[in-house]
Amino acid sequence: MNKHGANDTVGGRSLWQNAGERLRRNKAAMFSLWLLLFFVVLVVAGPWLAQHDYTQTNLSLGSTAPSLAGGHWFGTDALGRDVLARTLAGGRISLLVGLVATLVSLLIGVFWGAVAGYCGGRVDALMMRFVDTLYAMPFMFFVILLMVVFGRNILLIFVAIGAINWLDMARIVRGQTIGLRHREFIQAATLMGAGTLTIIVRHVIPNLLGVVVVYVTLTIPQVMLVESFLSYLGLGVQEPFTSWGALVNQGALEMETAPWLLVFPALFLAGTLFCFNFIGDGLRDALDAKSDEDGW
Amino acid sequence: MLTFTLKRLLSAIPTLFLVVAATFFLIRIAPGGPFDSERNLPPDIRANIERSYHLDEPLLQQFGRYLKGVVRGDFGPSYYYRDRDVSELIAESFPVSFTLGMTALLLALLGGVTAGVFAALRRNSFSDHAVMSLAMSGISIPNFVLAPLLVLLFAVHLQWLPAGGWRGLGSVVLPAFTLALPQAAYIARLTRASLLDILGSDFLRTARAKGLSRSQAVWRHAMKPTLMPVISYLGPATAALLTGSVVIEQIFQIPGLGRYFVTGALNRDYTLVMGVVIFYGALIIVMNLLVDLLYAWLDPRSRRRQ
Amino acid sequence: MRRIIILLGLLVLLWMGWRLVDDPAPGEGAGDADTLAVLHRGNGPEPESLDPQIARSDSSGAILRDLFEGLTRLDPDGKVIAGAAASWDVSPDGRTYTFHLRPAARWSNGDPLTAHDYVFSMRRLVDPETAAAFAFFLSPVINAPEIIAGDRPATALAVVALDEHTLEISLRAPTPYLPGVLTHPANFPVHRPSLGHHGREFTRPGNLVSNGAYVLSEAVIGSHYSMEKNPNYWDAENTAIAKVVYHQIANQNAELARFRAGELDITYTVPNNQFALAAKNYPDQLRVSPQLTTYYYGFNLRRAPFAGQRGLRRALSMVVDRKLLAGSILTAGQKPATGWVPPGVANYTAIEPEWAAWTMAQRLAEARRLYRAAGFSAANPLKIEIRYNSADIHRNIAVAIASIWRETLGVQASQLNVEFQVLLQDMRNGKADVFRSSWIADYDDAFTFLEIMRTGAAANFVGYANPDYDDLLGRAAATPDADRRRVLLQEAEAIMLEDQPLMPIYFYVNKRMVASRVKGWQNNSLNIHYSQDLSLAGADAAD
């Protein structure tokens, strides 16, 4: 019996469908995707799942080990706050920082790189010179300076990290755009009289989507690590908010006496970072047309 | 190549100037000053100190004064370490950071490239995923968690290695390893992606068709193009090593340059901050130049593009 | 190409190896004649200077106390004893001190130590050109305040060398704690010819000429300071330890790890979060003693809601169960504080407000009454902000106290973590409602605590101004009789506690790890331990 029935049209498969197929075959990436989804659901549903409020202190309780019977499944910290609730709450902040900062760097970087790559010549040279200048600045230091100058506002953390992280994105996008510039459909659009901005927005950027998606997936974990470094320096999120970075930092100080303070947030943090990295790699493999098995 | 080098170095000067100016004004805006402490200085004494460090002059004048000094090679006295000049502090700490950084870089290259090649050749198999998982742990576990764990295991319990300080060969091991791990992860991923790219290419298929065995083909023909992206990455890698070392230097008490970024900003040590930023900027520019030269030397195609 | 890279790699490795092997590890290298006789001390954050008149931090203080010697010094119990001065006389009115220096005292390069050295150094301390933070230590000396303000030259300071070995200090009022103040490094002598010859670099090893038990032999910023026994010290034969290395380790947990690995003999402190571990696993090596430091929350008296609201402030202080805090957060045996001057200060008995002895229930009732009387209620809660600087313990206390205030009174207290520099500025500019701070005793006398609450005092961040209080302090300063003075000071403290400009929370403790092989260690409240008083078991007495 023929696989294709008489009513089926034998059509081609789009690039995206090919990529999707390849991704599905990558077991590690698929596993990471599901695990990440699981983390996200947990974290978002946190307030309804956790039995305790994450800011509720209980001074007479103090630091206690995890116990199912006691109601604190992940234990409590020195102030008697429930670690499970705090881990989930911290996850919300960490993921938020990851997403928003990446979004900021995405917006700036894609725009910058696309314009520079498409326009070429003087404009390109000037724009990339600016990027080079920024590269010569110690990134962490400037985030610290911004924190120091403008105080520790959670919004500022997003913006500061994002605003400094866009350089790589800009470079990659520029590279891709240069490759795209000479493709027929762009030339066709120019011939039809489309303006530069229209071409950039309508034709160039949609074709960058693959690269950008990969890059975004790989930037989010980077950003989360930067946030945890800021927490290490004492420049992270303010109470009553917390983040995985802050929790891990505090837990690391007591890892011998109260390991539950470190283990649970660290598992969530490391797990999430792992997932993002594997998914990003998987996406990159899937979208890269050349890297196909060929008897190797 | 010479004109290329000269042009790059010359164009570095306006870059550095911008960096210096941005840092200067940014740190001056920050609240608090280098002479604040809980033992609040009586106003007379505070005025005296600020006068002796020219902090009572208008900002632009201070900037001009500072630039004049820099041109002469004088980065000024540290505002916080009052017995020391900034240039000495940098001169003493940089070799330490360099040694630590180079060791870490070598470890990262060795480990990362090996892992990446191993994984690429066994694509999508269990070994691939296992090796890449191990590599990814380098960028999933923050170093301020890993470092104390390693110290606890190797120094406190096993007592095989020193817990900190910078004396003797043993004291490099833990810090360099912790520092190298994230970079090894990036390099492994980069190498794997790059090699996978190359493996699908025509010239390799030709080599195989000519009768070369798989490993011969890979080692003799694939390695060089595979490593090109890794070499481009060396520039940012060095930068990352230098700033990533802040945590390592604090946890292992290594007298390097990295911690001056943080302590300088937090102590409002204006001159130290400026000196370190200029030094870092110059270093990055030189590193990028070296990497580009190396890249050009290895890849004749890019030379022609110049 | 691969071969070239490998070759380069090997060369780099060789170079690095050479660099590292250059610095022998402790206990492994040539150069340490008897490596067992080396004392390794943890010394916290990097000292900002080794110039006695400029240095401000405790880390520099520890190093300077081993390198130099003041007119007086402290014994292992923290009591003032003779130092470079063998004895001193006090005039009957308490205003003139005459110090008799030891004729045998020498600098480390052999030069004789004279009274002129002390005259020079004290003038240097008050000289505005030096811009020394601790110039105010010599404020009791005639003409000192005018010199600091720049109205008179430094030579006008009433510190005179009557001859090579006799020093006379004339005071504006009797100052019984003067010998104590003179033990502080700000009052240590500097070697004038070295200063003239090397300028700012006179503190480098090799340049530094000192008059104490040790001489600086090595200084690596961010790592360590090494010093070796000074053969020219007058008491050199009683200095048991030949070499001391101070390790600068800012990270407290890392320091404890090094102690446990056997690399340190004495630590600078023990982190709160590892205290329980240390107490359980190293009970004999953990040394805890009360410290003369008070941790407090200051109220901003310059503006609403705390200006003129004594009852409200008292309510906020009363509801905090300090014992509960100490038990769950502090864990190192820190004592709850409701009074300002810690117990154990010389010539003083600590006092507490009356309500400190009430039960928690009584305190809560009274506090609620005061809160309502101030115009606040559930419908109109007090909204304030607690500012603190970055450290786990400050954060935990802020969160805990905000919690307590919310649960007992309904106060909405947000917490703002700011950088230390920013906090200091906020405190100075009166921008914080409630701020966290602590006051460390500069010398062993109640005056060091009480004088910062004087109207207009530099460290009076709360903005407290009570003329009765100032008057009592002034009278106490002018009283030579110790008992009368104590009574006056206690009256002053009682007034201040009644006004509640701040909320004391706990008194610090000194906590250090001291290895078993260190002998001669005595806990003292000032947390000062000279290396020359210590010895190492198992090492031959070095000479």
Structural commentary:
The complex is a heterotrimer of chains A (296), B (306) and C (543). Chain A has helices at 15-25, 27-44, 46-49, 83-119, 121-135, 139-150, 154-181, 184-191, 196-232, 244-253, 260-287. Chain A has 296 residues and is mostly helical. The longest helix of chain A is centred in the middle third of the chain and has 37 residues, at 83-119. The model of chain A is unreliable at 290-296 (pLDDT under 50). Chain B is mostly helical and 306 residues long. Chain B has helices spanning 2-29, 43-52, 59-71, 86-121, 126-140, 143-157, 170-199, 202-209, 214-252, 258-267, 270-298, 300-305. Chain B is globular, with a radius of gyration of 24 Å. By secondary structure, chain C is α+β, with helices and mostly antiparallel strands. In chain C, the strands form five sheets. A six-stranded mixed sheet of chain C has the order 12-16-11-15-13-14. Chain C is globular, with a radius of gyration of 26 Å. Chains B and C meet through helix 2, helix 4, helix 6, helix 7 and helix 9 of B and helix 1, helix 7, helix 13 and strand 15 of C.
Radius of gyration of chain C: 26 Å
- Count the beta strands of chain C: 18
How does the major sheet of chain B shape up? Answer: none
The chain-level structural class of chain B is: mainly alpha
Key features of this structure:
heterotrimer; B: about 300 residues; mainly alpha; about 0% strand; C: about 550 residues; alpha+beta; six-stranded mixed sheet; four-stranded mixed sheet; 18 strands; about 30% helix
Q: How is this fold's topology laid out?
A:
The complex is a heterotrimer of chains A (296), B (306) and C (543).
Chain A: H1 15-25, H2 27-44, H3 46-49, H4 83-119, H5 121-135, H6 139-150, H7 154-181, H8 184-191, H9 196-232, H10 244-253, H11 260-287
Helix pairs in contact in A: 1-11, 2-4, 2-11, 4-5, 4-7, 4-9, 4-10, 4-11, 5-7, 6-7, 7-9, 8-9, 9-10, 9-11, 10-11
Chain B: H1 2-29, H2 43-52, H3 59-71, H4 86-121, H5 126-140, H6 143-157, H7 170-199, H8 202-209, H9 214-252, H10 258-267, H11 270-298, H12 300-305
Chain C: H1 2-21, E1 38-42, H2 58-67, E2 72-74, E3 80-82, E4 85-90, E5 96-101, H3 115-126, H4 144-149, E6 159-163, E7 166-170, H5 178-181, H6 192-198, E8 214-220, E9 224-229, E10 243-247, H7 252-260, H8 275-281, E11 286-299, H9 310-318, H10 322-330, E12 335-336, H11 360-373, E13 383-389, H12 392-409, E14 412-418, H13 420-429, E15 434-440, H14 447-450, H15 467-477, H16 482-499, E16 502-513, E17 518-519, E18 535-536
Parallel strand pairs in C: 1-10, 13-14, 13-15
Antiparallel strand pairs in C: 2-3, 4-5, 5-7, 6-7, 8-9, 9-10, 11-15, 11-16, 12-16, 17-18
Helix pairs in contact in C: 9-11, 15-16
